[in-house]
Amino acid sequence: MPATTAETLVLLNYQVTVAPLVLLSTADHYGRSAKGTRKRVVGVLLGQNDGKSVRVSNSFAVPFEEDEKDPSVWFLDHNYVESMNDMFKKVNAREKLIGWYHSGPKLRASDLEINELFKRYTPNPLLVIIDVQPKDVGVPTDAYFAVEEIKDDGTTTSKTFVHTPSTIEAEEAEEIGVEHLLRDIRDVAVGTLSTRITSQLQSLQGLHLRLQDIGSYLQRVLDGELPVNHAILANLQDVFNLLPNLSTPKATGKDLPTINGAVNGSIGISGGTSENTELAKAMSTKTNDQLMSIYLSSLIRAITAFHDLIENKIQNKRQQEDEDAKKDEAEKTDEVKKEEKLMLNGTAEKTDKESKESEPAKKAEKEQKGKKKG
């Protein structure tokens, strides 16, 4: 059995948090490069490591090839890693190279050699295996650090990976982006009710898995396979204390037989006279209040929709009346212009006719004047 070193204990207490952006980038990298194959993709992790916690906030893909038959034959372009790392430093100097990732889904024989390569850039690189095709409900990441394995028999030490707990933690901007992304990729044909039911089903499945883990742990403690951990038992007791008491006895009297029957019923012994009348009444009252608020909100929403519909109808009617009035005014204006044009044309014809009729009279006058002069 390997001995536990101080370094291993420190690494086990590390808090590794992974940003959703890293998961999306890895899934996109796998979808573009290795989807439908048995290959895995490899990339570099960027973030901060303060000695107590590791925050993985960004990543980039790296060209990687390996022989499927011989795991010891692999290629990773470290020149590309160095050039990309220099460019990322110019963009954000706080994000440093802290480790690497691959799509797994499990550790492989060549991971220790690749991890040694990344020690050129960081003294203790972090390895995160990101499962791009998760089959179970839970966190799709597994974090590891490489440590020296000290054997009890005194033989030569060797490198091995130690698992460190990891969580997915998003900042406010990332939460908004992920929410919009999930809203965009949601199936339009699926209704809101089915979406809610699906999310609740997934939550219940995750709760069921956690309860199974707790049950298996307690069973192993009872069987003597694991030592008793009082901190874990205290946390479990706190969880159980938060559960509602579904066997509240009904206080019907203060005599001894009544109290004994109530106590027996509360702890599940036959012969008890406990009834959950108060609890049922409280739950029904709360449910009725919630349903009443839902009913009122639906009623108000319907009234608001009807009001908007009527207002829209009124506005459309007013617009139609204004358009009709404008058309009538335009038609009247055209008629007035036509009448004026006709009047002008009639006056011009009359003037031409009078001028033509007056021309012979003018000629006759001229002839008479000429005769008089002669």
Automatic annotation (TrEMBL):
Residues 16-150 form the MPN domain. The keyword Protein biosynthesis does not apply. Pfam families: JAB (PF01398), MitMem_reg (PF13012). One of its GO terms (cellular component) is proteasome regulatory particle, lid subcomplex. Residues 318-342, 349-368 have a biased composition (Basic and acidic residues). Gene3D superfamilies: Cytidine Deaminase, domain 2 (3.40.140.10). One of its GO terms (molecular function) is metallopeptidase activity. InterPro entries: EIF3F/CSN6-like_C (IPR024969), JAMM/MPN+_dom (IPR000555), MPN (IPR037518), MPN_RPN7_8 (IPR033858). GO terms for biological process: proteasome-mediated ubiquitin-dependent protein catabolic process. Residues 317-374 are annotated as: Disordered. Keywords: Proteasome. PANTHER family: 26S PROTEASOME NON-ATPASE REGULATORY SUBUNIT 7 (PTHR10540:SF7), EUKARYOTIC TRANSLATION INITIATION FACTOR 3 SUBUNIT F-RELATED (PTHR10540). Belongs to the peptidase M67A family. Acts as a regulatory subunit of the 26S proteasome which is involved in the ATP-dependent degradation of ubiquitinated proteins. This is 26S proteasome regulatory subunit rpn-8. It comes from Friedmanniomyces endolithicus.
